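Page 37, continued from 36.
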């Protein structure tokens, strides 16, 4: 009986940990039209429409409208909300 309680406690802790790890993805889900302006090392810039973003370490995870995922350095991206999408 004690072993069953320990197994249940471990499963519960794993579930809570997974939920806490998912919060950044849920919190930064784009509910509005968003654009990411990306600056490259050569000074050029690119603009992509995104559906979501999330910080990952020192980088930003971007999900484009077409489903592609890009990971860009946090200092090299500006996320802008666009009303005239």
């Amino acid at each position: 009986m004690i072993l069953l309680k320990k197994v249940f406690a471990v499963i519960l802790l794993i579930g809570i940990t997974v939920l806490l790890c998912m919060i950044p993805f849920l919190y930064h889900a784009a509910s509005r039209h968003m654009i990411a302006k990306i600056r490259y090392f050569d000074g050029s810039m690119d603009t992509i429409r995104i559906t979501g973003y999330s910080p990952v370490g020192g980088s930003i995870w971007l999900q484009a409208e077409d489903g592609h995922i890009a990971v860009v350095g946090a200092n090299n991206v500006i996320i802008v909300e666009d009303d005239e999408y």
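The beta strands are 29-39, 45-56, 59-64, 69-73, 77-81. Flag for discussion at group meeting. The CA atoms of residues 55 and 75 lie 12 Å apart.
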